[in-house]
Design brief:
Elements lengths: L1 H24 L7 H7 L5 H5 L9 E6 L2 H15 L6 E6 L2 H8 L6 E4 L5 H11 L3 E5 L5 H9 L3 E7 L3 H8 L2 H8 L4 E4 L2 H10 L6 E3 L12 H13 L7 E7 L4 H14 L4 E6 L5 H10 L4 E3 L12 E3 L6 H4 L5 E4 L13 H4 L4 E3 L7 H10 L2 E3 L3 H11 L4 H16 L3 H13 L2
Parallel strand pairs: 1-2, 1-4, 2-3, 4-5, 5-6, 6-7, 8-9, 8-12, 9-11, 10-11, 12-13, 13-14
Helix pairs in contact: 4-5, 4-19, 6-7, 8-10, 12-17, 16-18
Length: 432
């Protein structure tokens, strides 16, 4: 079955590329010769030489899908770097945006695009890099990568493992194919009991599994200097002390609802300002269209001087700036929840004490979303009217806002500690 998979791999890859193009994200595929070489496993010798200062030094290969998974792995990498005998870290990602994000993580010694899951590319990569361990982040279960790593005697682990019901049903249809590929996992740190049961059903030994929580929620608040720089950018727009709310990680279908919500809330609070950050920067032009249709004056983050004087909306068109902006807001909406995506990191604003709004589609973040709701630091909104009502309740000073801030901070504290638990479980793979 593995070789049948390899035979149809080019067709599967073409299908994925077409899906990205038709989703309006074709600009994300712009790659040069260097990226192609990395996809083929042709790691430059200089890059390999820089990873080990001595032959005895341990090298751990982390693989993450994209930006979100890189961010999820970062608290674990920080905890690992604090160890006396910390290994060297090579991180690969499936997307260019993820690779670029990993390059900015101080604890990562080298970041590359992952070799495609094709036997010649994987074998070439492993021969050149020779990692001691492979740690997959969340659900990056590439069959040929797993097989080749196991055949090469590389210890395989899973960090922050998750398995949604829909994904589990897909993998279960091919359980006979995946069971021998997942059996070699030496350690698997997963987010919750459901994930543990599903990975066990697919072939990961129960002795290797441990529920450690979601490392993504161990994020520290952004650095004060970064927050102050973000506040300075907002003051330069002429916003002063105007109330601000953020819509972060929004997906297709959500921006029209949020534009309407902002317009409704601004009728009651004319000074209301908002920051809109699409999940994928290549969708910024689409978001611009919705803002224009709604009659909302906006400017882009990347514009040195605001295109609009005192705009109502700041449109984020660069990666990595959103975390420092959350503390500047009175409340935040987190996307992927008004449409059937399953939700993005609803705890990220709460880490900075910012109350969180989210839609009803929270399959990927249910535990945290329910924790925020129970603490009073989160609220479910289903349409523009409910979102506007929540904004009116939380963007102005008062007892209701103060209670929501306290609830958000308490929820963030409740979900901390996963990085330490994950490191403890994966320690035999990560450290000598």
């Amino acid at each position: 079955m593995l070789w049948i998979y390899q035979f149809v791999f080019p067709i599967l890859a073409a299908g994925i590329l077409l899906k990205i193009v038709f989703a309006g994200r074709g600009r994300a595929l712009r790659e040069g010769r260097g990226e192609l070489r990395q996809r083929l496993g042709l790691v430059e010798p200089r890059a390999v030489a820089s990873l080990r200062e001595t032959p005895e030094e341990r090298l751990v290969w982390f693989h993450a899908a994209s930006v979100g998974e890189v961010l999820a792995a970062t608290p674990l990498l920080k905890a690992l770097a604090a160890e006396a005998n910390a290994p060297r870290i090579l991180m690969t990602t499936t997307t260019v945006a993820g690779r670029d994000k990993a390059l900015g993580v101080a604890e990562v010694d080298a970041a590359l695009l992952a070799p495609m899951d094709f036997y010649p590319a994987i074998r070439t990569f492993l021969r050149r890099v020779r990692p001691d361990a492979l740690i997959l982040v969340e659900t990056e279960l590439w069959p040929m990568t797993l097989r080749c790593a196991a055949d090469a005697g590389i210890a395989i682990g899973l960090a922050n493992g998750r398995m949604r019901e829909r994904s589990f049903r897909r993998y279960s249809r091919l359980s006979g194919f995946f069971r021998p590929l997942l059996a070699p996992f030496a350690r698997a740190a997963v987010q919750d009991e459901n994930a543990a049961k599903r990975f066990a059903a697919l072939g990961v030994s129960e002795s290797a599994l441990r529920v450690t929580g979601n490392v993504k929620y161990d994020q520290l608040p952004p650095a004060p200097a970064a927050v102050e720089a973000a506040r300075a950018r907002l003051r330069a727009l002429g916003w002063g002390e105007d109330p601000v709310w953020i819509a972060g990680s929004t997906r297709r279908g959500e921006e029209p609802v949020l534009c309407t919500a902002h317009t409704l809330a601004a009728e009651r609070i004319p000074s209301l300002r908002w920051i809109l950050a699409p999940r994928h920067p290549e969708r910024v032009r689409e978001a611009e269209r919705f803002l224009r249709e709604a009659g909302i004056r906006f400017t882009r983050w990347s514009e040195p001087l605001a295109a609009e004087k005192n705009p109502s909306c700041l449109l984020i068109d660069e990666l990595g700036v959103l975390p420092a902006l959350y503390p500047c807001a009175r409340t935040a909406f987190v996307g992927g929840t008004l449409v059937e995506i399953g939700g993005h990191n609803v705890l990220e604003p709460a880490v900075s004490g910012v109350p969180v709004l989210f839609g009803p589609h929270i399959g990927s973040v249910r535990e945290v979303a329910e924790g925020l709701t129970a603490s009073g630091g989160g609220r479910v909104v289903c349409d523009a009217a409910q979102t506007a009502a929540a904004l009116l309740a939380w963007v102005l000073p008062g007892e209701e806002h103060d209670r929501a801030v306290a609830g958000a901070a308490n929820a963030a504290e409740t979900f901390s500690g996963a990085a330490a638990r994950t490191l403890a479980h994966l320690r035999p793979l990560l450290l000598l």
